[in-house]
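Record pair follows.
FIRST:
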Amino acid sequence: MTVLVIGATGEIGRAAVATLSRRYDVLGVSRGSEPAVDITRPETLDALFSTHEPFEAIVVLAGAVPFAPLADLSREDFEAGLASKFLGQVEVVQRGTAHLVDGGSFTLVSGLLSDHPVPGSAAASAINSAVNGFVAGAAPELPRGIRINVVSPSLVSDEPQYDGPFAGYPIAPAAQVAQSILRAVSGQETGRVLRAGW
């Protein structure tokens, strides 16, 4: 069986593929891969699912949110972030459930701004919180023993510190976040927010 990683070319995605590959067969995809998968374009998900056997797990590490002062954020900014990081991940779950084996799992991604906002993070904080809430609500409804969790990483970097509004915030290397993703894939938990690095 294969674990699907959507968003495999980002910093966390690359680390997740490397970590999961030690235990599973992994198919890593992104908007620039072949096949190309963009979670804001549901037809790309359908095309992928139609050409593969059911997956053991689906990991989503994709989705963008705007980061700007609240006064500068428009309705369109919020809608774009919701369409990408929130509704994009919801689409993966809704369309992917039929393409998971019994007892398979989804792992989504949010972030520490849901609990620890900074100036400029109003949209990101709201959308990360929405992802966390979706996972809690979806867990008891998924069929066939399918599990769902969300990994909420701290700031991710191999550098020792961030400046500006993130000064003093916890930082974790991507490899540490990947260990939380492995836990979500291989464990028995469901409906959980797995905090990585904070």
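SECOND:
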Amino acid sequence: MTFSIVATDGVDVGVAVASKFVAVGAFVPHAEASVGAVATQCYANPSLGRIILSAMKGGSIAEEAVRRALAPDPDREQRQIGAVDIRGNAYAFTGRACPEYAGHVVGSGYAAQGNILAGPEVVEAMAKAFEAQRGELLDKLLAALEAGEKAGGDRRGKQSAALVVLRPRGGYLGLTDVYVDIRVDDHPEPVAELRRIFRIWELTLLQRDDPTDVVSKKDVAGEVQEALRRLGFYRKEPTGVWDEETEAAFREWAGFENFENKIRDDDKIWGSVYRYLLERGRQVHR
């Protein structure tokens, strides 16, 4: 009762999924950095995800790993699985007993699959969007999920969505492999909400800003001081001069917002952080 896509670019591995099912992110996505990604759905047996990843870690390509995992499963014709290994080998299985419309599209480095869909156009749209979207793997996965929903998605409606992308040492401060891991467990517009939460994740945690999208502290000192004053971090009237007190207030605010990994050691501010600060300041009326 789900549509999903698993993919890799040879470095990142990930899964994006949406469904008229509560907390779909708890059951469908499985991934391991430098190994691969799996989606287990349609009368899902989540334990198959771990089995398939273990087989791929042991050297099996995606198809072999899925076939071996399903072989002893008496309910395999009710299962739907998409899998991709880190080498880009992708495979999908749609059991004959999966509720209509059920099907999949497999391409280079990805597999899109779904059941109880509006029609085959859902997975076809996902595949086209994935192949057309530029950027990182996460951008391609989100684009595919949005395209699937636009094409009709789960014909029963909407409820939850999730996005998982792993990158070796790509997580917070380089301490984990979790590049992106967000879920919407129950929402009337889960894919749109997933995109909204991703923007916050990206601003707070990802270091992929456009290197040209920066502003000079001396050029925006007055605006920053006013925003910080409204937010309670700068405690005097703006001077328009970026001094030690302004720097301290800015860093205090950045820590409050969990932007410590977005603090630069030069005389610049990331444009994304600057715009967010001004927006937050405008929301406070004094």
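COMMENT: The chain has eight helices and twelve strands.
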